[in-house]
Amino acid sequence: MKKLIAVLALATAMGATAPVIVMAHEGHKQAADSQAAEGEGVVKGIDREAGTVTIQHGPIKALKWPAMTMKFKATPEAIASAKVGQKVHFVMKNDNGQPLVTAIHAM
Fold first, then answer.
1. C-alpha pair distances (Å), 49 with each of 45, 53, 59, 62, 75
2. Which domain holds residue 83?
3. Tens-digit pLDDT profile for residues 15-38
């Protein structure tokens, strides 16, 4: 009987934590459903071949995102003049539920 109670308690505890892990990342996709948003930050990395830019950005109020470092998909035009270490203002739009950086301007 004690083993059954212990197994049930463990299963309940494990089940209660699993949704938290999923929810921690889902909020980003849901927030990206807004039409457009802008932010400011520092370019930390660029992969022109993959079409991505990594930006350490401040809070993005329109999306309710805290400050963090993120790798974004970006248009070729947006990353054409971007440089690592550069402080930037950037614009992104919703692209099938994911943010897509469409413009990057040096500050």
1. 12, 11, 28, 29, 11
2. 32-106
3. 444 443 333 334 454 444 457 999
